[in-house]
């Protein structure tokens, strides 16, 4: 993104969209939007968010649904779309598998477990939900720990799946 702090914008969001459009293709923007879409959404809403025409969005969403990356849902008055969560998880696991060796993943897993254990001990709770219930609204450090715990929990599942992927490769290949 090209940003010149001396240049004045009436609407910074409009400037960001202009830069995004100049740096990406329409199909890249559509895919970026739909891969963050977890609730069934109309093609027109995706088109608006991706700054793309609705016919192009419908074509791309159809292609993405055919490839399994997107779910197409009958919304009664037209199709709705959202990312395919199973494919999203699979892509995250493959990314970890490509970026880290099995040993490195085990190290990351140990670190994340230690992080969760430390937060549990610090606050004397067993879950992020329990922690959230005891935190004061202005307890900044506590809320940061809460976010850290939630992120570590999500990443623990993905790391475990990536390690299992390595194990499966040994057995199958």
Automatic annotation (TrEMBL):
<dbReference type="Pfam" id="PF24033">
    <property type="entry name" value="DUF7342"/>
</dbReference>
<feature type="region of interest" description="Disordered">
    <location>
        <begin position="1"/>
        <end position="21"/>
    </location>
</feature>
<feature type="compositionally biased region" description="Acidic residues">
    <location>
        <begin position="1"/>
        <end position="13"/>
    </location>
</feature>
<dbReference type="InterPro" id="IPR036390">
    <property type="entry name" value="WH_DNA-bd_sf"/>
</dbReference>
<dbReference type="InterPro" id="IPR036388">
    <property type="entry name" value="WH-like_DNA-bd_sf"/>
</dbReference>
<protein>
    <submittedName>
        <fullName>ArsR family transcriptional regulator</fullName>
    </submittedName>
</protein>
<dbReference type="InterPro" id="IPR055766">
    <property type="entry name" value="DUF7342"/>
</dbReference>
């Amino acid at each position: 993104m090209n940003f010149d702090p001396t240049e004045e914008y009436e609407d910074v969001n409009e400037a960001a969209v202009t830069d995004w459009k100049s740096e990406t293709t329409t199909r890249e923007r559509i895919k970026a939007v739909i891969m963050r879409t977890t609730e069934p959404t109309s093609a027109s809403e995706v088109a608006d968010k991706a700054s793309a025409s609705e016919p192009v969005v419908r074509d791309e969403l159809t292609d993405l649904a055919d490839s399994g990356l997107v779910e197409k849902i009958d919304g009664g008055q037209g199709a709705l779309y959202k990312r395919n969560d199973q494919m999203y998880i699979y892509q995250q696991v493959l990314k970890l598998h490509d970026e880290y060796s099995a040993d490195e993943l085990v190290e990351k897993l140990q670190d994340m477990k230690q992080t969760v254990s430390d937060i549990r001990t610090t606050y004397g709770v067993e879950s992020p939900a329990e922690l959230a219930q005891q935190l004061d609204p202005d307890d900044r450090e506590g809320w940061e720990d809460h976010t850290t715990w939630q992120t570590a929990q999500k990443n623990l599942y993905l790391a475990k799946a990536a390690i299992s992927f390595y194990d499966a490769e040994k057995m199958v290949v």
